[in-house]
Amino acid sequence: MKIKAIKIISFILIFCVLLYSVSRALRFKYDDGIYQFDSFYKLENNSVDVLLLGSSHSFININSFYLYELYGISSFNLAGSIQPLWNTYFYLKEALKTQKPKLIILEVYTTIFDYEYIDDSRIIKNNYGLKWSIDKINSIMVSSPKNRWNEFVNPFYQYHNRYSSLTFEDFLNYKGKEKYKYDKGCVISYSVYSNIRPKVIYITNEINLYTKVDKYYRMIIELAKNNNIPILIVKSPYSVYNENDQKKYNVAERIAKEYNLPFINLNYNYDDYNLDFSKDFADGHHLNYLGAYKVAKYLGKYLKENYDLPDRRGDPKYYSWGMNAKYEYKKTYNFELKQYTNLNEYIEKVKNSDDYVISISMLGNYKNNDSIVQSIATNFNIDNIYLKNVSYVVDNNKLIYSSSGSNQYLFHKEIGSYTDLVLQNGQKLSINRKNYIKTKNGINMVIYDKFTEEIVDNIYLEYKGNAINPTIKR
Questions:
Q1: Which residue of 17, 51, 180, 377 pairs with 101 in a disulfide if CB–CB is 3.0 to 4.6 A?
Q2: Is the CATH code 3.40.50.1110 the one for domain 23-333?
Q3: How far is it, in rounded angstroms, from Cα 28 to Cα 125?
Q4: How far apart are CA 253 and CA 260, in angstroms?
Q5: pTM for the full predicted model
Q6: How far apart are CA 144 and CA 153, in angstroms?
Q7: Phi and psi of 400, rounded to 5°?
Q8: What are the pLDDT digits (tens) for 76-96?
Q9: What is the 8-class DSSP label of residue 222?
Q10: In this predicted model, what pLDDT tens digit does every residue of 163-186 receive, in sequence order?
Q11: 457 has which bridge partners?
Q12: Three-class SS state of 227
């Protein structure tokens, strides 16, 4: 009997392990929901000073990275895509189990919603990041019609379509990317979308909030107040702002005043933070990194002047915020590098980063006294410039490898968790078995960032008319 019992218990344990492993691979991994809670659960208790709640208007437009970089504020964007306020309520309930923030910021774009339920994708994104508890079940139940509760309470009902779309990343922690180890919930967009600046109409008329929206808006405020946590209501800027939206925000503001809460509508004062509608937006609703920086600079100043928020920069307890700041800073730095077309400016930008591995292959009939060749030699401390079929590797602004065309050496270097760099005889510049040689009559250059573990740029300069053309090509 003991042996039989051991077999049964072993079978159950193996089944549970397999079920957990399958679930981890199949589970949804969205950046606009799901991963916000994955990162939140890894935080040390009571380490969040400012909790940011709401929809994408929160996690894109009010950026936790910039608040830390500019003011040392340890904030976290715990929000989801087009998140209804009933989900925001349960997000706050869950957050308060491990965090006691000094301030809650509620972004209220979704107070203009006028429907009972949202689409299936957003139901998943705004519920499946929560750990299993009665609160998660209640959140799912309020998010979906009663006749569909079983579809969302049972995750495998939703996972069954995932089998055919699984990728290698699904089996890796953090998708195999450094970003998710330190993520603080915000999403940064680098797109640029030119908008027309809306004409803000200062009206006092009102349109009542949808009943369910009104209910959960008040419940969020009351939950914060019952926990003695100040709450700031904010409406971030967007370009499709209209009169009907304003009438609903008037109600949201009036309700805030009923509870003696401050309400900041950043659509009233674009000029105060120099918002440029031709450059600072990613689309009609969301700011890009330029606009998010301006909002964080303006809003962060208000926070520091009106709330007791310590500067956490340099504090070992907030190491992950510092690493997140470095990651997002490097992502922005890398993005800006790819916008350069002037070679001299490009090289200066490359030299200013200690995290770059620069791989160079120089092929063709160029002269070693060519001005571009000499510029590269000078900037990267290369003493000997050969005539053709040459490879160089510069790491942390130091030359670590060079070969002439007469050599047949194979250079191999591990430069990332899953990344290898191979150069051979000036003819091969390969990373993860992909050859990045784009011209065999000129200069090829690949920039790899060791911190973000990504290929940042792949450029080439062609040899034409007895000289290397300084025009950067990609």
A1: 51
A2: yes
A3: 8
A4: 10
A5: 0.88
A6: 10
A7: -115, -10
A8: 999 999 999 999 999 999 999
A9: H
A10: 556 565 655 565 555 556 899 999
A11: 447
A12: coil
